[in-house]
Write the structure tokens for this entry.
Amino acid sequence: MRKRSLQRTASSLLLLLAACLGGLRRAPARDYWLEPGSPYSARGEELVLHLWAGDHLKGQEEKGLQKDRVAYFDLFGDRTGRRDLLATGKEGQIPVARVREDSASVLAIMERGPQPITMEADRFNKYLADEGAEAVIAQRAQQRQTDQPGREVYSRFLKSLVQPRDLATATPNTLYKRRVGHRLEILLENDPSRLRPDGRLSVKVLFEDLPLAGVKVSACRRGAADDQPPVVFTAATDARGLANFKLDQPGLWLVRLVHIRAAPAPERRGENGAQWESFWATYTFGARAAPPAVPPPMA
């Protein structure tokens, strides 16, 4: 009897420990992003879109289509308008989209969440520091919560741009800076496929349709080889929500940011009693200099 009692006690303790650990889930992968098979295309080609979770364009895991977590997944074409990829996709499919488009320029968008998460204090504090969320760090300190777990609800807003492969014959368009209504939205102010010789790209950040100032924005590109670190630039948005980067290497780039604020009352009554809400935005695109202008023929 004593042996059985000890076994029941041990089992109960294990269950209690598992429940406690389950409440402190690991932090989500730093970013989710949509990545095309190629950032350049031509009319009529098959468009393939992958959904990755990881850091600095280093995918730790390719995700399948999760319809219950996606509010919408759409494709805009410069010739074909808006297309619903969520309705035509299959649950769990990898890659998340494989379609043919009659447009050489397309913009894919996705919204995921909101999802609750609870992180132990050290992990949450590091996450806040990494994202430059000084205001949240100060609020937690003021409320004596620095040593407390971070309870949060997060949403993700993803964009991916595919541009014409042949710029010499392509008709310029403004799809790269199209506003799609994300709560946290990244806009490109100039065409990344036709960068000036200095490689400068300006991005604008909007939160709930207003410029978001003082937020940390990063632009990154994979290293030239698998064993090389990524190229990462950071900048803070100004009062107009603008940040500027010098993209000195061609290829696929990712612009990303996180905006964190105190959660409103409905989230505080939710699954984990979230005290904070975060909004994650990513935008992938190909960057390259525009072809040199052809001089007019001599008279």
Summary: Residues 2-23 form the longest helix (22 residues). The first strand starts at residue 31 and ends at 36. Confidence is low (pLDDT under 50) at residues 1-28.
